[in-house]
Amino acid sequence: MGASGSGIFFDGKSSERHVVTIVLDGQALIVKQEGQETPLAVWPYDALEQVTSPDGVLRLALHGSADLARVEVRDPTLAGAIDDLSIPVDRSGMTSRRSRRKVVVWSMAAMASLLLMAVFGVPYAATALTPLVPYAAEMKLGQAVDRQARTMFGNDDPSKPLECGTSSEEKVGAAAFGRLVARLEAVAALPMPLSVTVIRKNDANAVALPGGHVYVFKGLIDKAKNADEVAGVIAHEIGHVAHRDGTRTVLQGAGLSFLFGMVLGDFVGGGAVVIGAKTVLQMSYSREVEAAADRYGIDLMQKAGGDARALASILDRIAGAIEPGFKVLLNHPATKERVAFIMRTARPAAGAAILDASDWAALKTICGKG
Amino acid sequence: MSAIDAAAPVLPQMPVAPEVSSGVGAARFLGSERTFFGLLARGALFLIVTLGIYRFWLATDVRRFLWGNTEIAGDNLEYSGTARELLLGFLMAIALLAPVYALFAVASLIADWVGGISGIAGLVLLGLLGQFAIYRARRYRLTRTVYRGIRLYQTGSAWRFAILSALWFCISVVTLGLAWPWGQASLERFKMCHTFYGNLGGRFVGSGGRLFLHGVILWVIVIVPFVAGSVIAVALVDWGALIDIMSAGGADMWEKIESSDANVGAAVVCALAALAWLILSAALLYPMFRAIVLRWWISGLRIGEMSATSRLRSGQIYKIYLRFLGYALLFALAAAVLVALAAFIVGTLPAAFKETPAGELASGIVFLGTYVLIALGYSTIYQSTITIRFWRLSFETVDLAGLGELENVRASGAASSAFGEDLADALDVGGL
Question: What is d(CA B139, CA B133) in angstroms, rounded to the nearest whole number?
Answer without folding.
Answer: 10
